[in-house]
Design a protein that fits this description.
CATH architecture of the largest domain in chain A: 3-Layer(aba) Sandwich
Order of helices and strands of chain B: HHHHH
Strand content of chain A: 5-15%
Helix content of chain A: 40-55%
Number of strands of chain B: 0
Number of domains of chain B: 1
CATH architecture of chain B: Orthogonal Bundle
Radius of gyration of chain B: 13 Å
CATH class of chain B: Mainly Alpha
Structural class of chain A: alpha/beta
CATH superfamily of the largest domain in chain A: NAD(P)-binding Rossmann-like Domain
Number of helices of chain B: 5
Shape of chain A: globular
CATH topology of chain B: Non-ribosomal Peptide Synthetase Peptidyl Carrier Protein, Chain A
Largest sheet of chain A: 8 strands, mixed
Helix content of chain B: 55-70%
CATH superfamily of chain B: ACP-like
Largest interface: A-B, 23 and 21 residues
CATH class of the largest domain in chain A: Alpha Beta
Largest sheet of chain B: none
Strand content of chain B: under 5%
Distance between the termini of chain B: 16 Å
Oligomer: heterodimer
Distance between the termini of chain A: 40 Å
Chain lengths: ~350, ~100
């Protein structure tokens, strides 16, 4: 049973992981970047814990036990006694590789290394021969408490013992998971990406407006529109993800127009909601679209989603009911049934 | 199903305002009903989840996070006022929140 867990990264996912795991009985070491304001992070943590005590969510004993079980630091050496490390730093390949090289020199020989990357396969991050059997991807979705699904990505070298330990860990944190080989990694994002790309192509080919697409998507498919989703995640992040996901896709060329459009918007500083302008923006007037061709658009989107869903079901060997449940968790809502 | 009184609304409002003033380190006078949680005071959805836990405990609510998640996907919260309204609906309907929504 893994007991000592290291979390690396003070971004949205790293912080979320810390607070999610806090409710269990792990010893947690939270490593923040050297640039992070450690005092502020500690203060926020204390404030939050204090509020939980004050509201009666935890009692005094629990409050004390949490304080004893957590260490917040920016010294990588503090993970030296961890049995599992979850990396959740920025989506930058070189930064991740460098981090794992350093961890290789610090961590216990038996420590399991995992990455929460949403688009980089774990085998690219393995720092040395010694670690190859002890390495996997653990892709959580935000916010973890609401998204009961994790993608566990195994490399060809991940050992059975490591898999057993990860499986036991996932059960202990009450999260369901999909076991994926790297060829099917990030399957949930990739199924959705095929759908998003089809939606973009319809706009790009002037068969629909982006407002029309988002309206149809919200009414018939998913809780968030395609372009709203892009803007909400951030176009710079989406660009890297689309590039990573599409490069090994048999239909890689179909993603070129979307990548080109994302590159153009990013180069103009239009990064989405965080810059108050992305696909949507104050300079884009609301276009009602062409309601008379809704049926045609719906049919194309349905076909695209069904095709991607079936393809990844077949490729991964995951039963369609299990994959649909995972998609429901991913969206936090019922997703279309594919027969 | 709980009855929402003016007193409940005031209590929820006070908790939400104090929570965000404390967590986001802003003056409570700068928080208003139309304050955008993400853009204006740098809040996030984890804060929303923490508030739910606080209200669950305070009002002894029978509500699953998943129910709130499904509701909030359909009714995304952006402002403090919307958040207070949603918390009041949660207190009022608990796990029947989605039935109320249909």
């Amino acid at each position: 049973m893994l007991k000592n867990i290291g979390i690396i990264g003070e971004g949205k996912m790293g912080t979320n992981l810390l607070y999610y795991l806090l409710d269990m009985d792990f010893n947690l070491t939270w490593i923040c970047s050297p640039e992070a304001d450690l005092e502020k992070l500690r203060r926020n943590f204390s404030k939050r814990l204090g509020r939980s005590l004050e509201a009666g969510i935890i009692d005094e004993d629990r409050f004390q036990s949490i304080l004893e079980r957590i260490k917040i630091s920016n010294a990588l050496e503090d993970v030296a006694s961890c049995e599992l490390i979850i990396e959740a730093i920025t989506e930058d390949l070189e930064a991740k590789q460098e981090l794992f090289r350093l961890l290789d020199t610090i961590a216990l020989p038996g420590c399991i290394f995992t990455s929460n990357s949403s688009s980089i396969n774990p085998s690219i991050l393995v720092p040395s021969e010694n670690r190859k059997e002890k390495f996997a991807g653990l892709h959580f979705f935000y916010p973890i408490a609401l998204k009961d699904i994790v993608e566990v990505i195994l490399t060809q070298e991940t050992s059975k013992e490591t898999l057993a330990q990860i499986t036991s860990f996932m059960e202990s944190i009450h999260r369901r998971f999909l076991l994926l080989e790297e060829k099917d990694s990030f399957i949930l994002n990739r199924i959705f990406l095929h759908f998003q790309n089809e939606a973009f192509l319809l706009v790009n080919e002037k068969k629909a407006s982006l407002q029309q697409i988002d309206r149809i998507v919200r009414e018939r498919f998913f809780p968030t529109g395609v372009f709203e989703f892009f803007d909400s995640v951030g176009l710079d992040i989406m660009l890297v993800s689309v590039q990573n996901y599409s490069k090994d896709d048999p239909a890689e060329e179909r993603f070129h127009p979307l990548i080109a459009q994302l590159q153009e918007l990013v180069s103009k500083g239009r990064l989405g909601a965080k810059t108050k302008g992305g696909f949507y923006g104050e300079d884009i007037s609301v276009d009602p679209g062409y309601p008379e061709n809704d049926g045609e658009i719906i049919a194309k989107l349905q076909e695209s989603y069904a095709h991607a869903f079936r393809w990844f079901c077949h490729s991964s060997g995951i039963p369609s009911a299990e994959l649909k449940t995972a998609m429901d968790e991913y969206f936090g809502a019922e997703t279309p049934i594919v027969i | 199903m709980a009855l929402i009184t003016e007193n409940t609304r005031k209590e929820v409002t006070d908790i939400v305002y104090n929570f965000f003033a404390d967590e986001c380190e802003v003056d409570i006078k700068d928080i208003h009903s139309d304050t955008n949680i993400i853009n204006d005071i740098d809040g996030d959805s984890l804060m929303f989840l923490e508030l739910i836990e606080i209200f669950k405990k305070k009002y002894n609510l029978d509500i699953e996070l998943k129910t709130i998640g499904k509701y909030s996907v359909k009714h995304p919260v952006q402002t403090i006022g919307q958040l207070i309204d949603m918390q009041l609906l949660i207190i009022e309907h608990e796990n029947k929140l989605l039935e109320f929504d249909q």
